[in-house]
Design brief:
This protein has 580 residues and is an alpha/beta fold. It folds into four domains: 187 residues, Flavodoxin domain (Rossmann fold, 3-Layer(aba) Sandwich); 100 residues, Elongation Factor Tu (Ef-tu), domain 3 (Beta Barrel), CATH 2.40.30.10; 97 residues, NADPH-cytochrome p450 Reductase, Chain A, domain 3; 144 residues, Nucleotide-binding domain of ferredoxin-NADP reductase (FNR) module (Rossmann fold, 3-Layer(aba) Sandwich), CATH 3.40.50. Helix 10 runs antiparallel to helix 11. The longest helix is centred in the first third of the chain and has 20 residues. It is globular. The termini are far apart. It binds flavin-adenine dinucleotide, NADP nicotinamide-adenine-dinucleotide phosphate and flavin mononucleotide. The site of flavin mononucleotide has 25 residues, from helix 2.
């Protein structure tokens, strides 16, 4: 067998070259040693497996993993794609070539479907991985403190365990597509003459409609009404978008991406503050300043570059102090409530050139919203449940970019750019008889409205138990009419409410869970699925703790046994979350 020649200038580094050489030599020796009846030339060459593992919350990493599989197949590998949590350590130890694509969540944490993998990999019991060649592609967002932390942790740990890099890790910012493709191209080597096993790789996920983050569909708003009452501290809205002839489809549990447009008042004020006009040309851009600030750049949340550059010029004692001391909490407290205009105005007579200002801003990003409708209940429509983020700072009204864009600037009949974002783990049970337990306070109720509609459409007979709450029953019991109708119809078999501020002490959904721990544990034992949606930082952590507590007390288990129980639920996709 003639080994393919690898030219010196081929796009592999030393490690990759060694690995590739070793792999090809291995392929050669196996074919030759297998000799006898079959000659090397006739040997049915088995494609070398390439494992591609992903950790994702909103699908980006899975999308890249599928792209990796397509590429690996075209390069002669037999790719095997799976989520990280599906892999046990003994399986990992048996792998030879591995690509990991992983995003980061929370405060530098693993996405939900990589938590169990990380727990095992970081444990002292993790196996040595000397036979493993690997590459890690990390997805993240530079505006977070712990940029791409999950990818960094996995990369470092694999190295510690003796695995060898196929190439250096790349950390991708929000516009990850080009960087990810380039990394895959450079990191997945050519497997030479091996024949791909067609059944091993799934087809790359392609949005059939052709609409995506890069090319959203301009959808017409069909309904935009306030759900919360007049005395509520919140403004929560029900929105309905027309899918028209887009060809876009979704399932209950998916999210919708919305491309916002910036507040025109903030755009105008910024332009004036810069001493420019909407038509002012900006170096390196085809469109004028007005258009750029309106639809291309993030002008609400200040970027790290903007903060650093303003500090250099503003001679603002407090900003210099908090930045100089590297105190993250003090910096967050200083920045709380300030948008890019507030930063410029720290020193009112500070002159900043338009080119400089624009170069310090980040691209305007879409926002994700859990879909609150089932397509089977509302064909051709997609519904959202959105809380408008508003606050006052320095006597000026401020608003979250997308939530106030949807609330204030997209009335019925107007249009907004949208695209679908699948969340394949977050689904009603495939078995219609299996019970569902849903915990969704505040806007966390969104996907559960969709789930209930979906169960109704399927004629599912399984029990449906909802935990919902917010501040006050009077003003915050959103979808009360629909929920009552679902209860009366026997669809919603059980409803537990926790209105936190209707009494002296706070009552939260997890208090209701614990009060009803016996029934909850019984339902889990019956095969029930446990779902959580809403606030990630406080609620989801406390609900998780309550779940552990219930399993310990009702199941008579030690904390360790309860953790094993919860991990089994996670592995079986019976404990899934959509938290933000
Ligand atoms: C998978 C997923 C699903 C989601 N589902 C939903 C959903 O169903 N419904 C929903 O409403 N949201 C949902 N979100 C959140 C949503 O994506 C947006 O983050 C939210 O609407 C805020 O975006 P914005 O553009 O309005 O605010 P942004 O422009 O992103 O910024 C808000 C900024 O304001 C700051 N801020 C917020 N409140 C205050 C305040 N009171 N005072 C001072 N500063 C403040 C924040 O720190 C932040 O810097 C979901 C998020 C994810 C990831
Ligand atoms: N990224 C953003 O800028 C942004 C924007 C909007 C929303 N969000 C996130 O989305 C979440 C949902 O917002 P929302 O307004 O729909 O609802 P929410 O703020 O989560 O409030 C819903 C209910 O949960 C209660 N709650 C507070 N702490 C809790 C805890 N530790 N455990 C259980 N319940 C708790 C609240 O009570 P009390 O209020 O009485 O304490 C309230 O009754 C927000 O919390 C936030 O994290 C983020
Ligand atoms: C709630 C939330 C928390 C996030 N936390 C981080 C973080 O700590 N560090 C980071 O680099 N990126 C963070 N990100 C950005 C995501 O990692 C990034 O958007 C990634 O492309 C998502 O990929 P996925 O769709 O595969 O989950 C966060 C995103 C969200 C919505």
């Amino acid at each position: 067998m003639k080994l393919p020649y690898i030219p010196e200038d081929a796009p592999f580094n030393g490690e990759q070259r060694n690995w590739l050489g070793g792999f090809l030599a291995g392929l050669h020796s196996r074919v030759v040693m297998g000799g006898g009846a079959v000659t090397a030339a006739e040997a049915p060459v088995q494609a070398k497996p390439l494992d591609i593992l992903f950790g994702t919350q909103t699908g980006n990493a899975e999308e890249v993993a599928n792209e990796a599989a397509e590429l690996a197949k075209s390069k002669g590998f037999a790719p095997r794609v799976a989520e990280l949590d599906a892999v046990e350590m003994d399986q990992l130890a048996a792998m030879e070539n591995l690509i990991v694509v992983i995003s980061t969540y929370g405060e530098g944490e693993m996405p939900d479907n990589a938590e169990l993998f990380w727990e095992s990999l970081s444990a002292t019991t993790a196996p040595r991985l000397e036979n493993l060649n690997y590459g890690v592609l990390a997805l993240g967002d530079t505006s977070y403190e712990h940029f791409c932390q999950a990818g960094k942790l996995i990369d470092t740990r694999l190295e510690q365990l003796g695995a060898k890099r196929l190439g250096a890790r790349v950390d991708c910012d929000v516009d990850f597509e080009d960087a990810a493709s380039a990394w895959l191209g450079a990191t997945i080597p050519d497997a030479g003459s091996a024949v791909a096993n067609d059944s091993a790789a799934p087809a790359a996920k392609k949005e059939k409609s052709g609409f995506s983050r890069k090319k959203p569909y301009l959808s017409t708003m069909l309904e935009n009404r306030i759900l919360s009452g007049p005395t509520s501290a919140k403004e929560i809205r029900h929105l309905s978008f027309d899918l028209g002839d887009s060809g876009m489809t979704y399932e209950a549990g998916d999210a919708l991406g919305v491309m916002p447009v910036n507040n025109p008042v903030l755009v105008d004020t910024l332009i004036k503050r810069l001493g420019a006009t909407a038509e002012t040309a900006v170096s390196g851009h085809d469109t004028g300043l007005g258009a750029l600030l309106t639809s291309s750049l993030e002008i609400c949340t200040p970027s790290k570059d903007l903060i650093t550059e303003i500090e250099k010029r503003a001679q603002h004692e407090e900003l210099s102090h908090v930045l100089g001391h590297g105190d993250k909490e003090a910096l967050d407290a200083f920045l709380w409530g300030k948008d890019t205009l507030d930063l410029l105005n720290l020193t009112p007579d500070l002159q900043i050139s338009v080119d400089d200002f624009v170069s310090w801003l980040k691209p305007l990003q879409h926002r994700a919203y859990s879909i609150s409708s089932s397509p089977n209940a509302h064909p051709g429509e997609v519904h959202l449940t959105v809380a408008a983020v508003r606050w006052m700072y320095d006597h000026r009204a401020h608003g979250g970019v997308c939530s106030t864009f949807l609330s204030d600037h997209v009335p019925v009949g107007a249009q907004a750019g949208i695209f679908m974002s699948a969340n394949k783990s977050f689904r009603v049970p495939a078995d219609n008889d299996v019970p569902m337990i849903m915990v969704g306070p505040g806007t966390g109720i969104a996907p559960f409205r969709a789930f209930l509609e979906e169960r109704q459409a399927r004629g599912a007979k399984g029990a449906n138990w909802l935990f919902f709450g917010d501040q006050h029953r009077e003003s915050d019991f959103i979808y009360e009419d629909e929920i009552s109708a679902m209860s009366s119809a026997g669809l919603l078999t059980r409803l537990d409410l926790a209105f936190s501020r209707d009494q002296a002490e706070k009552i939260y959904v997890q208090n209701r869970m614990i009060e009803n721990g016996k029934d909850l544990f019984y339902m889990l034992e019956e095969g029930g699925h446990f779902y959580v949606c809403g606030d990630a930082t406080r609620m989801a952590k406390d609900v998780d703790a309550a779940l552990h507590h219930i399993i310990e007390t009702q199941g008579g288990m030690t904390p360790e046994a309860a953790t094993d129980y919860v991990n089994r639920l996670k592995r079986d996709k019976r404990y899934v979350r959509d938290v933000y």
